[in-house]
Design a protein that fits this description.
Layout lengths: L2 H25 L7 H57 L4 H24 L4 H4 L4 H9 L6 H18 L15 H21 L4 H25 L11 H9 L13
Helix pairs in contact: 1-7, 1-8, 2-3, 2-6, 2-7, 2-8, 2-9, 3-5, 3-9, 5-6
Pfam families: Bestrophin-like (PF14023)
InterPro entries: DUF4239
Protein name: DUF4239 domain-containing protein
């Protein structure tokens, strides 16, 4: 779902509902628009506002949590990438190929995030893995010569397994978690609210301006929710900066030599 398109469409639908309410109030006979009927409309509107507010609040909270989880995954990945490279450097020259592969994985991870920001997560470039399984197999092929290298190899495998659990390294199959029927029901409730606004509002510029501002605010709230639910693209997106910083610190540098025995 494109957040901008849906928010613009929502704004148009909300304004159409407000105009429909104004038209309905004008077409109904005076006997139908009594004070008791107006009170009933206001009570129904309060119920719809409560339902929509609660639902929208829950959706925003869920989208915010999902966004923070994915952003934290990238931050954690960067720290584990640096730790893994440092561990392999201490292992010795036998791990240089693994360090080269780790650097390539980081490069492809940055490319994947940048591609997803433009084209989404359902593209050919984001469907394939970026090599974390090959790195794990490469680490398993290391043959430790002493207890020190055995310990370093074990730590490297643990860090590689942690990296393999992160979702940004794999094809997610979806740009967001919010299902369109859920969003459609929410917009339908809000349309009922705007119809009630138009039904009881006076026909003047102030009333129309107020309904326009409220419709714009609700459309912006929907846009914010969908934008948070798609952390790979939009105005609020997952940053690859931690991975770039990690990439600057990893690579096939001179390995740390083991201390010579005294």
């Amino acid at each position: 779902m494109n957040p901008l398109s849906i928010s613009i469409l929502s704004f148009i639908v909300f304004m159409a509902s407000s105009v429909g309410g104004l038209w309905l109030a004008h077409r109904l006979p005076e006997t139908e628009m009594t004070d008791r009927n107006r009170d009933l409309i206001k009570e129904a509107r309060r119920m719809l506002v409560a339902l929509a507010s609660l639902t929208l609040g829950l959706i925003i909270a869920s989208a915010t949590t999902s966004f923070e989880q994915r952003s934290n995954e990238v931050d954690d990945s960067a720290s584990k990438i640096i730790a893994l490279d440092s561990t392999l450097a201490k292992y010795g020259p036998e791990a240089l190929e693994s360090r080269d592969l780790l650097r390539e994985i980081v490069r492809r991870g940055i490319e994947r995030i940048e591609v997803a920001a433009v084209e989404g997560f359902n593209t050919e470039k984001t469907r394939s893995g970026i090599g974390i399984n090959r790195l794990q197999l490469k680490l398993l092929q290391l043959a430790p010569r002493d207890e020190r290298q055995t310990w370093l190899r074990s730590n490297a495998l643990g860090l590689a397994n942690d990296l393999g659990a992160y979702r940004w390294l794999h094809y997610s199959g979806s740009d967001g978690r919010i299902q369109w029927p859920f969003l459609a029901i929410l917009i339908f409730w809000l349309c009922g609210v705007f119809v009630s606004y138009g039904a009881v509002a006076p026909r003047n510029a102030t009333a129309v301006g107020t309904m326009t501002v409220v419709a714009l605010c609700m459309a912006m709230a929907i846009h914010l929710t969908l934008d948070l639910d798609t952390p790979n693209r939009g105005l609020i997106r997952m940053s690859a900066s931690p991975l770039r910083l990690a990439l600057d610190q990893v690579g096939p540098l001179e390995p740390v030599q083991a201390p010579s025995p005294r």
